[in-house]
Amino acid sequence: MIEKRTFKGIVCGSKHLSHEDFQDHIRRAAAGLQKLGVEKGDCVAIFMRNDIPFLTASHAANHIGAFAVPVNWHLAGEELRYILDDCAARVLVIHADLWRRVHEAIPQGIRCLVVETPDDLAVPFGLDAAACKVPDGMTDWQSWLDDQQALSSPPQAGLSSMLYTSGTTGHPKGVRRNALDAQQAAIMRDFRSRVYGCAPGARCVVPGPLYHSAPNGYSMQASKVSDLLVIVPRFDSESFLSLIEEYRLTASIMVPIMFIRMLKLPDAVRLKYDISSMTFIIHVAAPCPPDIKRRMIEWFGPVINEFYGSTESGAVVTCNSEQALAKPGTVGKVVPEADVRILDEQGRQLPPNTVGEIYSRFPIHDFTYNGKPEARAEIDRDGYITSGDMGYMDEDGFLFIADRVKDMVISGGVNIYPAEIESVLHNYPGIRDCAVFGVPDEEFGESVMAVLETEPEVSLSIDELRSYLRAHLAGFKVPRQIEIGQDLPREDSGKIFKRRLRDRYWQEAGRRI
Predict the structure, then answer these.
(1) Which partner from 199, 215, 319, 342 sits 20 to 30 angstroms from 106, CA to CA?
(2) Contact predicate 324/300, CB 8 Å
(3) Strands 409-411 and 414-416
């Protein structure tokens, strides 16, 4: 029987793999990829939910100098095909149930290695058992792995996964990092240990999707240097607390919606588990309402940290619990390895407390877009890049995020930032999730709309909610339209697909013109 509190290695659901066995799997997979013709600079695509073979394939590709290309498993077949074509993938590692969904879109010539979808995924996702088996005639990942002789050659240094951007404004783009030499790779390992908290000796847990840039980078680091990495097949608030107690976990990477859902657990459930082992939680990907962060610090202690960045920039700003309490709403100060500027539309640097577009520079972590150098140039100003976020620096050098450029609502000439309104809504009893965005308005050009998802059995009074909002926000920020919906389209990474919500209103307006 495995002693969970002292086990060292990689865990996902019921699977436990020692570090020695994990490294053996990586070297076997690396040998097998070489036999399939994967060479230095080639791409190995991974279309999987959270599972240990996801990381095995990623490390194996890097071992032989190839790029691992994680792909969001929610994508439709044609969306997957675009990425496979764009990166010229030689091999695709894919879960069996997902292969059945997208196999007709996989380009000819790509070798598929099909991973049986385990019960740890089939049960929480409600998958058909037959669909989780490797189809007849396809290469079974485990059998293929068992047939390989582990490589004895040392791994290639300096490569990382090539992540694709979400593609909300067009086709996704592959973020291809510049290769690092041995010294630079060591610097980045130390940087991630400091910023992520997944340092040597740590016992880490990743409840977010491995296809997303932050959990992916965290998992790749933790699986190399930390004592333990627990990969969560699918996040559940109470189960997550149980894992902390069972494995005496010390570190995690999370997103704010996970905080919100844990805080909404009944007190009897929240206080049931021993979470005292946790010493470092880093959160990313979406704004965290200051009140939510304060409550998490009160619950877990001063272990809540944050980093700000993007798939392109990496982590360029960090914030610890003390700073978050002293400066509510800040995402922190710039890390020594990077630099951040706030620029106006003409590229001029703005003074403190003035909202502009955020540009950053992280020289050792630079990149190009795969096959699209012109797209890299479009977001560049004098070596600084932007992901389209708006914000400001205060007089003490703390960065505050206003919102995304594309999410900002301009109503009657006034800039309104939905993230601020969402922060207030998340604190209202009975609201499980929310999204605020701009919709067409004949008088003001745009007006603010909110779509809410409520807790089960909760009936909200819109009038009472408006009164609450007016008590916390300026009148022009209170949404003119409020709708109750179900299952808001939130990505596993914690981001809301606002485009799916707002496009309907803009299309209807276009038909009326």
Answers:
(1) 215
(2) no
(3) antiparallel
DSSP 467: H
Q: If you average pLDDT over residues 456-471, what whole number do you get?
A: 87
Query: Distance between alpha carbon 494 and the CA centroid of its chain, in Å?
Result: 7
Q: Is 9 left (phi over 0), alpha (psi -120 to 50) or beta?
A: left
| CATH T-level topology, domain 15-175 | Rossmann fold (3.40.50)
Contact of 90 with 44, CB cutoff 8 Å: yes
Q: For residues 296 and 301, what is the distance between their CA atoms, to the nearest angstrom?
A: 7
Residue pair 428/418 in contact by the 8 Å Cβ criterion? no
Using CA atoms, how far residue 237 sits from 156, 269, 497, in Å, is 39, 10, 22
More confident residue, 411 or 53: 53
> Cα torsion for 177, 179, 182, 183, to the nearest 10°?
-60
Pick the CATH number of 409-512 from 3.40.50.261, 3.30.300.30, 1.20.1070.10, 1.10.3720.10: 3.30.300.30
Domain with CATH 3.40.50.980 in the chain: 15-175
Per-residue model confidence (pLDDT) at position 510? 46
pTM, entire model: 0.82
Task: For residue 486, count CB atoms less than 10 angstroms from its CB and return exposed for 0-12, middle for 13-18, buried for 19 or more.
Answer: exposed
pLDDT band at residue 168 under the 50/70/90 scheme: very low
CATH 3.30.300.30 residue ranges of the chain are: 409-512
Paired residues of 228 in beta bridges: 9, 203
231 within 8 A of 10, measured Cβ to Cβ: yes
